[in-house]
Amino acid sequence: MITFEEAKTRLEVVGQSHLLRFWPELSEEEKSRFLGELSELNIKELEDHCRGATKAAFGQQTSLQDGLHREMEPVPPEFIGGVKRSDKNTLDDWENEGILQISRNKVAVLLLAGGQGTRLGVPYPKGMYSVGLPSKKTLYQIQAERIRKVQELAAGKHGSKCTVPWYIMTSEFTLDPTEKFFRENHHFGLDPGNVVMFEQRMVPAVGFDGKLLLEQKGKIAMAPDGNGGLYRALVDNQVLEDMEKRGVEYLHVYCVDNILVKMADPVFIGFCVRKGADCGAKVVEKAYPEEPVGVVCQVGGVYQVVEYSEVLPETAKLRGAAGELVYSAGNICNHFFTRDFLRSVTQHFQGELKQHVALKKVPFMDEEGNLVKPSKPNGIKMEKYVFDVFQFSKKFVVFEVPREEEFSPLKNADGAALDTPTTARRSLLAQHYRWALAAGATFLDHQGAPLPPEPCRTSQDEDPPVVCEISPLVSYFGEGLEQLLKDKAITCPFILDEVEAEKLLKN
């Protein structure tokens, strides 16, 4: 650990000596902790970070490539697969391949869970959030149970026990509460040895004047380095070495907030494996040209995600011969990587990842030592994105899935127009209602009269006709329900968990 004088000298060199202005007010313990934090700063990297942040935030460095709209091209059809684009036999073939790889212990999932639930208005990690399902299950529990079920399906088909390890990338903010939450819930029935949590790096938040902000009198305001911090975190925590020991060759990477995510999706895994891909992206068809989602495409022959704000309106509105949007592949942060590809990225390309600017409201200590919670953005956070490695792929593929079946993110508190607890809950319950109808169930109203089925109901604007929740431990993605629900008359609210499934099998 460096001394105070060493810290002062180093900070003066890069114009950040203001960080020590409250030094006399700190206790001995606080001073020791602060010096430890300062010791970990790489001064050259810090100087570059502050300079780069201010340049990027104030337009001295453009995020647009010259002539981007002229270099954009859609993903060639031969590199796109999808649920609606493929016949049942092909989909079954991909699913069987994925199930086979899972049964051989070659598949793992990796959750990007470094962010807090700030926009949701809660002080804990987003995965601990409950959207108000009848079962009260949190996002973490739903995802854990989907892993358990897909393991069970693979083991049942191939006659051997198998494991899908769950890697969870947290941050300084989310690691401790996430570990505690999993312990208190007995890892939701998973073997704790197969749930591997690791922490991504934190980077300092920079004020608009290029100065670092203090979160406390003896602590720099820090933020996770974006979900693209994954690649450095894999190295820092020797995660790829752990995967190699377990025999994992394929990785499904996703964000915590999608309540409909298919964990270790066998169809997606099988598609990518059969195509010989080292990198793949799940996408949904854009709902309309101006929808604020990034687009997976090629720019100058290189695959990447182009942010919606970077696409010219006339480009976004381009349509093909059948009336479809030319740039329709909406990115949903749901990816496939081989372990070898990740190894290549960490060894050769990590330093080439683009830095993205985010202007944030960062609480800070003012000159008098008062904590200020700003009402508008006052700080610059530099982030990397997980999808910026597409450009390094030797065989990149895209897999399109129905939005109503696989994508309903939770980002905002209720009251916002989109992506709220209410819309997430409605999406899941509407999906389970469709599954039950497809299995042959009949729902009854409060008077016991049959309700007419409404199979096409997928809107997030209103609740589904009935409340029906199906546990992932009963059905991973709608399979196996016919033997339970065919010709059954069901009164709602209806929760189909393992106990209820046993009862139905006996009747």
Explain what this protein looks like in three dimensions.
The chain is an alpha/beta fold and 507 residues long. 32% of the residues lie in helices and 19% in strands. It contains 16 helices and 24 strands. It starts with a helix and ends with a helix. 43% of the residues are buried. Belongs to the UDPGP type 1 family.
Instruction: Tell how many strands the DSSP assignment holds.
Output: 24
User: From the alpha-carbon coordinates, what is the Rg to the nearest angstrom?
Assistant: 25 Å
Q: Report the mean per-residue pLDDT as an integer.
A: 92
The structure class reads: alpha/beta
Largest sheet, in brief, is: 8 strands, mixed
State the helix count.
16
Rough shape?
globular
Strand content: 15-25%
Side-by-side strand order of the widest sheet:
2-20-12-15-11-3-4-5
Layout of strands and helices, then pairs:
Blueprint: H1 4-13, H2 28-39, H3 43-57, H4 68-71, E1 72-73, E2 80-82, H5 88-103, E3 107-112, H6 139-158, E4 166-170, H7 175-184, E5 195-199, E6 202-204, E7 206-207, E8 214-216, E9 219-220, E10 222-224, H8 230-236, H9 239-246, E11 250-255, H10 266-274, E12 279-285, E13 295-299, E14 302-306, H11 313-316, E15 329-338, H12 339-349, E16 356-360, E17 364-365, E18 371-372, E19 379-383, E20 396-400, H13 403-406, H14 421-438, E21 442-444, E22 468-470, H15 482-485, E23 489-491, E24 494-496, H16 498-506
Parallel strand pairs: 2-20, 3-4, 3-11, 4-5, 12-20, 21-23, 22-24
Antiparallel strand pairs: 1-13, 6-10, 7-19, 8-9, 11-15, 12-15, 13-14, 16-19, 17-18
InterPro entries: Nucleotide-diphossugar_trans, UDP-sugar_pyrophosphorylase, UDPGP_fam
Keywords: Nucleotidyltransferase, Transferase
Organism: Anguilla anguilla (European freshwater eel)
